[in-house]
Amino acid sequence: MKHLKGKHFITTEDWSKEELEHLMDLSHDLKAKKLKGEVSNLLENQTVFMLFFEQSTRTRNSMGCGITQFGGNSHDLTPDKVQISHGETAKDTAIVLGRMGHAIACRCCFYDKGNKYLNELAAHSPVPVMNLQCDLYHPMQMLADMMVMQEKFGKNLQGLNLTISWAYAESHAKPISVPLEQMLMFTRFGMNVTVAHPEEFPLLPAMVDKAHGYAKESSGSLKFTNDMDAGFEGAHIVIPKNWGGFANFDKWEDSPQQWEQMQANLAKHKDWICDERRMGLADPNVKYMHALPADRGKEVTDAVIDNEKWSIIYDEAENRLHTAKAVMAATMAGV
Ligand code: CP
User: Fold this and answer.
1) Which of 133, 171, 177, 182 maximizes ligand 1 atoms within 8 Å of its Cβ, making it the mutation to test the pocket?
2) Total-model pTM
3) Residue 57 C-alpha to ligand 1 middle, in angstroms?
4) Which residues have CB under 8 Å from 172's CB, separation 6+?
5) What is the per-residue pLDDT across 204-248, written as a single tens digit (0 to 9) for each?
6) Host domain of residue 105
7) Same structural domain for residues 24 and 94?
8) Which atom belonging to ligand 1 lies closest to the Cα atom of 291?
9) Ligand 1 mean position to 56 CA, how many Å?
10) What's the 291 CA to ligand 1 centre distance in angstroms?
11) Hey, which of 184, 241, 266, 332 has its CA 20 to 30 A from 227?
């Protein structure tokens, strides 16, 4: 699709269903070619600047490996490696990097700032900008999730029962962008989406309203429950994962009361764990997914995440590579 060359990838919402289906087809094709050992120099001598405000295993390495496999290279940047830590603006960063390389990719999850930062980069960049996760969206993860679902259930996902559930965790205040965009994306493709969460951890109301509209358009459905067990009943796919409240994740040290409130809310829901009993409430062929990293023993038991009949987490993670390559091929080469 030639018109995709130069298109930013900030959220799947900016891409039509036809364009997303094209990325899916491309991802499956690239995976098959890699398995056959086929080599491509599609992006030879091209550079992707990767700017990470937060840690990453899958996103960083799928992008880095992906561009290498296309004959190009990546620069792995953090704010302290460039002049952002001295206050250089998104506009100046985007224009300067865009005049040197061929794409800018960025992760910035600070609540109420990350998506604005990505959009500021995109507004000024002469090359495509790719969102590697912000406070509201994680589009690269959405593609890998959709790809693994297609591998397990077939290309048409219409009518599948998918449950996005909040789960308890202690490792860090996980961003809300993954469940938000999953709700928005999967309602567009006709799935029956259930969101289960404690009252204290709702999704953003404006996004919920949009997702109801998408579900109606696609003849799918969207419902909510505050009961994790009820959320699991009859599910073909469960995605239990922690998310924090609406907080400035970079400002905990300035907001001790907000932090204490979050901890108190978290402590009330230690029983929100994905375990064998709950998997037994779902469809007999249910699949367990997680974007990773998972808090083992908190979000999910080892008996579930290591169960090869249920868990498809490693296929899901591997697909980050094939889908990242598809996004780069489409936006940098117009494939
Ligand atoms: N799922 C995901 O984005 O993983 P990383 O944070 O390791 O990139």
Assistant:
1) 133
2) 0.97
3) 6
4) none
5) 999 999 999 999 999 999 999 999 999 999 999 999 999 986 555
6) 2-138+320-333
7) yes
8) 1
9) 5
10) 7
11) 184
By most ligand atoms within 8 Å of CB, the mutation choice from 54, 57, 65 for ligand 1 is: 57
Residues 47 and 129 in one domain: yes
Residue 282, phi then psi, degrees to nearest 5 = -85, 180
CATH assignment of the domain containing 43: 3.40.50.1370
- Alpha carbons 128 and 250: distance in angstroms, whole number: 27
Give me the DSSP letters along 52-97. Answer: ESS--SHHHHHHHHHHHHTT-EEEEE-TTTSGGGGT--HHHHHHHH
Q: Tokens 């364009």 belong to which residue?
A: 19
Regarding whether 260 and 177 lie in a shared domain, the answer is yes
In this predicted model, what pLDDT tens digit does every residue of 285-321 receive, in sequence order?
Answer: 999 999 999 999 999 999 999 999 999 999 999 999 9
Question: Could you tell me if the CB of 104 is within 6 A of ligand 1?
Answer: no
